[in-house]
């Protein structure tokens, strides 16, 4: 997955659709999860921090995990005295962190994860008691969202199938809601936010 994103990093934030989608997801997370100023969060698949920096405004600290060095370099450039995401270049599914978090957020990364069961089991182990997940991605689609499907393992997600996997991995209070539509020339694509707790 990471090789496909190295060359995209420099231009990543220039697409208005991408920026707006991150803002919409951040608003949806804030409306469905009670964020508090003492929280320590992880942004999984943080990229350049489009989602992470918006959510960081409401919590104490954030770690941004990604496997793309190029994306994390761009993220580092955006860190400031007032808002800083700690970048970690690591595949935490294969090599988990020792840290525990109050919540894990993620935007448009899940479809790049091959084993969903392994992913949700791993991130559950990264959460404190009563910790939350808030994961946004594509609803089921026909494979035309990306112009190149290299590194794409899922053409979006079916609500019932995904919720069952999450519950089977030990999460509770699982909710799946459509939060927006991305309009592309070929068709409209639904974006969902899945929230749950341990």
Number of domains: 1
* CATH evolutionary superfamily: Vaccinia Virus protein VP39
| Multimeric status of the protein | single chain
Largest beta sheet: strand ordering: 3-2-1-4-5-7-6
Strand count, sense and barrel status of the largest sheet are: 7 strands, mixed
> What do the pLDDT scores average to?
92
CATH topology heading:
Rossmann fold
What sort of overall outline do the alpha carbons produce when their principal axes are compared? globular
**Roughly how many Å is the radius of gyration?**
16 Å
Write the layout of secondary structure elements.
Elements: H1 2-6, H2 16-32, E1 40-44, H3 50-56, E2 61-66, H4 69-78, E3 85-89, E4 101-107, H5 116-125, E5 127-138, H6 159-168, E6 172-184, E7 187-197
Helix pairs in contact: 2-3
Outline of the structure:
With 198 residues, the chain is α/β, with parallel strands linked by helices. The protein is 30% helix and 30% strand.
Report what the structure shows.
It is globular, with a radius of gyration of 16 Å. The protein has a 7-stranded mixed sheet with strand order 3-2-1-4-5-7-6. It has one domain: Vaccinia Virus protein VP39 (Rossmann fold). α2 packs parallel to α3. Helices cover 30% and strands 30% of the residues. With 198 residues, it is of the alpha/beta class. It contains 6 helices and 7 strands, in the order ααβαβαββαβαββ.
Structural features:
198 residues, alpha/beta, Rossmann fold, seven-stranded mixed sheet, 6 helices, 30% helix, 30% strand
């Amino acid at each position: 997955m990471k090789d496909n994103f190295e060359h995209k990093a420099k231009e990543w934030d220039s697409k208005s659709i991408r920026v707006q989608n991150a803002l919409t997801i951040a608003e949806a997370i804030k409306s469905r999860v009670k964020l508090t100023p003492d929280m320590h969060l992880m942004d999984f698949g943080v990229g350049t921090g489009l989602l992470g920096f918006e959510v960081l405004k409401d919590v104490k600290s954030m770690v941004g995990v990604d496997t793309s060095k190029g994306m994390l370099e761009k993220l580092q450039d955006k860190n400031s005295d007032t808002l800083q995401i700690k970048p970690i270049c690591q595949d935490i599914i294969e090599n988990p962190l020792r840290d525990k978090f109050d919540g894990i957020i993620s935007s448009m990364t899940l479809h790049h994860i091959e084993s969903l069961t392994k992913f949700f089991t791993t991130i559950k182990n990264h959460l404190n008691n009563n910790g939350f997940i808030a994961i946004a991605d594509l609803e089921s689609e026909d494979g035309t969202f990306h112009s190149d499907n290299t590194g794409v393992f899922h053409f979006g997600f079916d609500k019932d199938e995904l919720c069952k996997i999450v519950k089977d991995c030990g999460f509770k209070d699982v909710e799946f809601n459509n939060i927006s539509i991305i309009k592309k020339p070929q068709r409209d694509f639904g974006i969902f936010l899945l929230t749950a707790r341990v």
